[in-house]
Amino acid sequence: MMSGYKADLTIALPTARLLVLPAAACLLVGAVWAGATLLISGETHTALGALLAGAAAASAAVISMLAIGPWRRRPLIRWPFVFLAGTLLQTALTLLGGLVLYFASLGEAIGTWLCLVASFWAGLAGLVRVYGSHVKRAAPAEEPSTAPGTPASRPSTE
Q1: What CA dihedral angle connects 147, 153, 154 and 156, to 10 degrees?
Q2: Across-strand partners of 11?
Q3: Which of 54, 69, 71, 148 is the most exposed place for a label (fewest CB within 10 A)?
Q4: Given this model, what pLDDT does residue 2 score?
Q5: What crossing angle do the helices spanning 15-40 and 109-138 adopt, rounded to 10°?
Q6: Euclidean distance between CA atoms 35 and 44, whole angstroms
Q7: HSE value, Cβ hemisphere, 13 Å, CA-based, for 48
Q8: How confident is the model at residue 1, as a pLDDT?
Q9: Rounded CA gap, 112 and 130, in Å?
Q10: How many Å separate Cα 71 from the centre of its chain?
Q11: How wide is the angle at C-alpha 27 spanned by C-alphas 115 and 40, nearest 5°?
Q12: DSSP states along 51-98
């Protein structure tokens, strides 16, 4: 194989950033939701449910990233599949946390579920941001003249 080929490149993902940013995003959404609930309605049980929903989504994000082992070096071409598996695990764990909160009957169930979904999406956005920027930086740049679909690689019609 060629030495600059993408399949030869092995990288590790930034573990600390993959753990901290999504968890912080989830917790921030839960805290903002709880604060808004207290300001608008003053219901402490609903606010507590929002905090716990943010914590459940943050826990799911951290556990799923620890499960895929981002500190291990893997070929660049294998990381999307591993990352997808981690994201699916995060989704399942978030749903499981939501079910636990639902059956614990903490406050209004719809508010807790909506906060859980918002926290999940915030955490997922953080994960994708960290993963995408790291992989983009690590991937070797392609030659503009050999990249498929570029005008330089198409035969001339003149």
Answers
A1: 160
A2: 74
A3: 148
A4: 47
A5: 150
A6: 10
A7: 9
A8: 45
A9: 27
A10: 16
A11: 50
A12: HHHHHHHHHHHHHHHHHH-TTS-EETTTHHHHHHHHHHHHHHHHHHHH
Conformation bin of residue 149: beta by default, left when phi > 0, alpha when psi is -120 to 50: left
Contact 90, 57 (CB under 8 A): no
SS3 of 10, please? strand
Lowest-confidence range among 44-48, 108-112, 132-136, 149-153?
149-153
What type of residue is 145? Answer: S
Helix pair angle (109-138, 79-104), 10° resolution: 170
Which residue type sits at 94?
A: T
Nearest residue to 38 (alpha-carbon basis) of 54, 50, 24, 26? 50
pLDDT digits over 83-102, tens only?
A: 999 999 999 999 999 999 88
State how far the Cα of 29 lies from the Cα of 35, in Å rounded to an integer: 10
> What single-letter amino acid sits at 73?
R
Is residue 135 a contact partner of residue 14, using CB atoms and an 8 Å limit? no
DSSP for 116-136, please give it: HHHHHHHHHHHHHHHHHHHHH
